[in-house]
Design goal:
The complex is a heterodimer of chains A (231) and B (409). Chain A is α/β, with parallel strands linked by helices and 231 residues long. Chain A has a single domain, classed as P-loop containing nucleotide triphosphate hydrolases (Rossmann fold, 3-Layer(aba) Sandwich). In chain A, 34% of the residues lie in helices and 30% in strands. Chain A is built from eight helices and ten strands. In chain A, strand 1 and strand 2 form a beta hairpin. Chain B has 409 residues and is of the alpha+beta class. Chain B folds into two domains: 194 residues, no CATH class; 164 residues, no CATH class. Helix content of chain B is 57%, strand content 18%. In chain B, the strands form two sheets. Chain B has a six-stranded mixed β-barrel, surrounded by four helices. Chain B has a two-stranded antiparallel sheet with strand order 11-12. The longest helix of chain B has 40 residues. Chain B is elongated and about 100 Å long. The two termini of chain B are 24 Å apart. The mean pLDDT of chain B is 87. The chains are: A alpha/beta (231), B alpha+beta (409).
């Protein structure tokens, strides 16, 4: 087993208008390479916060976060951006595609940030779109795609850069039942065939049926860590 | 990055078009102002040097001396020969300027009498520019004179009548009677009221045989104020054969006040045009900042995906540059086209021309633009784009990804 993401005693407290709201309280969690893990729990339990901290989008108030053998909570903003750029892929609930770019350009966006040559990034982005059955829509802009298609492009964007791990924040929350199920199967296939590590924050039971591990959060604490039905 | 910037600007077509148009207008007006200022400078240079020459030879120290004989260059023929040898194809005017009393019978006035001998080309130009009635004195005539119209009116004399000139204390005859053969119409009323011309020979006979007070050298193909390097080379070549008793001055040294005035045109234009760019810059700041404010979430996503703050700042700056450079390209194309048209020659409306001529600006002017002025305009535009983007870029570079992605516009 090879740990890829770790949270050690992570606490996150948000302060708004002088009022402190604890989002996470002393969370310990280790994600192994190749896992298909869901962080589940009711709204406000701290799922998204934990995902953000693991992905270097935010810093814990206390505790440590690790990516492989590197401690990430102490990195400066530029170094943390570098980690996100080269080693972590993100998929967001609202897809968050760039509206003025086509599906192909969106899928290639992270590769462009990495400074890869145009030919390479277009080839990799197209390969990612093909893997997600989206090649036919490569030259459409987000407003010409359905929600499910946009989320596939978002996954292609995360996948194209070949990150060690993809963190997906409620990826099926905005999708209808059929589209959500198709997307889950797609991610499961990528996990099994390409060994991509997925960590989801979700409370979608359809997704929970397929994961290999479920970490349940309540009130900012891990209350259960169990093998999922997909294991 | 540039493609993304271009497309982002097109999201708000109307706003971007208005801003780019404002930039284009400022660039166009800047180029136009530069072009007109250049026309004015070259026009004044042309008028001044047509009348006073590109290079002027006087006796050393004459500017400070009050006595008439301190101005005299005694061996005028030798100096003239030396000038002709060095000047080559240039045209030469030899002047003897004498303070005299002019009398028209019942009235008299203290004036400057100019004995003038000039090469045929200069004489033709002089007659064409200033002669309003009659003709110029014959070069060999000893008894013909022309007066400024205002002076003729003051003396109450007309063409064909006699004018008496008194030059007491000089080395010639000291007095003479001259037939008025022509009238001169100078743009400057003051000059017209105190100037009379006779042949050089007549003036020498009256006041200083074989002497002159001034040589004016007109060099060929020297029409632009920017050609001054060539002038200074000729001046330096002339200085040695003429010796230390004579002083060779460029028009700039001969007319320091006007030279300073012309030198001020460019800095004033720079300040004036700079203000235009400041105003355009405020519009660009507004556009770029609004564009940022509307896309905070998007910037949050871009940062989350791995763009560091410098990359994000470059993205904002690139949008500002694309916006401003688009306007600059349009403004430059229009400006260059307009200046090319005005370079064929233009004149202000007649009512305005009367005043501009009074200030030594020719009625017909030719717009021009130097490479330096074009480069300065483009640098102004690039500077505006960078300055306008600094604050929005700074804001964008400090966005925190999680907060930015939660931002509600």
């Amino acid at each position: 087993m090879e740990p890829i993401l770790q949270a050690k005693g992570v606490t996150k407290i948000y302060t708004t208008g002088g009022i402190q709201t604890p989002a996470l309280q002393g969370v310990d969690l280790t994600i192994q390479k190749g896992e298909f893990t869901a962080i589940a729990g009711p709204s406000g339990s701290g799922k998204s916060t934990l995902l953000h901290l693991l992905g270097g989008l935010d810093r814990p108030t206390a505790g440590e976060t690790w990516l492989g053998d590197r401690r990430t909570d102490q990195l400066d903003a530029v170094a943390l951006a570098h980690v996100r750029l080269w080693e972590i892929g993100f998929v967001f609930q609202a897809y968050n595609l760039i509206p003025v770019l086509t599906a192909l350009e969106n899928a290639a966006f992270v590769l462009e940030l990495q400074g890869r040559p145009r030919r390479e990034r277009e080839a990799k982005a197209m390969a990612a779109l093909e893997a997600l059955d989206m090649a036919a829509y490569a030259h459409r802009r987000p407003n010409q795609l359905s929600g499910g298609q946009q989320q596939r492009v978002a996954i292609a964007r995360a996948l194209a850069a070949e990150p060690q791990v993809i963190l997906a924040d409620e990826p099926t929350a905005n999708l209808d039942s059929q589209t959500g199920r198709a997307l889950i199967e797609l991610m499961k296939r990528l996990n099994q065939e390409q060994g991509v590590t997925f960590v989801f924050s979700t409370h979608d039971p359809r997704l929970l049926e397929h994961v290999t591990r479920i970490v349940r959060l309540e009130d900012g604490r891990v209350v259960r860590d169990e093998r999922g039905p997909g294991a | 990055m540039w493609r993304l910037a271009w497309r982002n600007l097109w999201r708000q077509k109307a706003r971007s078009l208005v801003t780019a148009s404002a930039v284009a207008l400022v660039v166009l007006s800047t180029l136009l102002f530069f072009g007109l200022a250049e026309a004015m400078k070259n026009g004044m240079f042309q008028v001044l040097t047509e009348r006073a020459g590109h290079l002027v030879v006087t006796r050393a120290g004459a500017d400070e001396a009050r006595e008439f004989d301190a101005h005299l260059i005694r061996e005028a023929a030798r100096v003239e020969a030396a000038l002709r040898e060095v000047a080559g194809e240039g045209e030469l005017a030899v002047l003897l300027e004498v303070p005299v009393l002019a009398s028209g019978g019942s009235r008299s006035r203290g004036i400057q009498l100019v004995g003038l001998r000039q090469t045929p080309g200069l004489e033709r130009q002089f007659a064409q520019d200033y002669l309003s009635a009659g003709r110029l004195p014959d070069p060999d005539s000893l008894d013909e004179i022309v007066l400024g119209e205002a002076l003729a009116r003051a003396l109450r004399v007309d063409v064909g009548e006699v004018v008496y000139i008194f030059a007491p204390g000089t080395e010639g005859l000291g007095a003479g009677a001259y037939t008025l053969v022509g009238l001169l119409d100078f743009p400057e009323a003051a000059l017209e009221g105190r100037t009379a011309y006779v042949s050089l020979a007549a003036a020498q006979e009256l006041a200083a045989p074989e002497a002159a007070t001034r040589f004016q050298l007109h060099l060929p193909d020297l029409h632009r104020i920017t050609d001054e390097d060539r002038l200074e080379q000729v001046r330096d070549r002339l200085a040695q054969p003429l010796g230390p008793e004579l002083h060779v001055k460029t028009w700039r040294e001969a007319e320091p006040g006007l030279a300073t005035l012309l030198d001020l045109v460019d800095p004033i234009m720079l300040v004036f045009n700079g203000l235009g760019f400041v105003l355009a810059g405020l519009l660009v700041v507004n556009t770029v900042y609004l564009s940022l404010a509307e896309r905070i979430r998007e910037f949050g996503v871009i940062i989350a995906l791995g763009a560091d703050r410098w990359r994000v700042m470059r993205m904002v700056i690139s949008e500002s540059l694309v916006l401003v450079l688009t306007g600059t390209a349009v403004g430059t194309a229009l400006g260059l086209g307009l200046i090319a048209r005005l370079a064929q020659g233009f004149r202000f409306p007649n009512a305005l021309t009367e005043y501009t001529v009074e200030f030594g600006i020719p009625a017909v002017m030719y717009a021009g633009l130097t490479t330096g002025q074009l480069v300065i305009t483009i640098l102004f535009a690039v500077g505006t784009a960078l300055a306008a983007a600094l604050w929005p870029a700074w804001v964008a570079g400090r966005l925190q990804p999680v907060e930015a992605m939660r931002h509600v516009t």
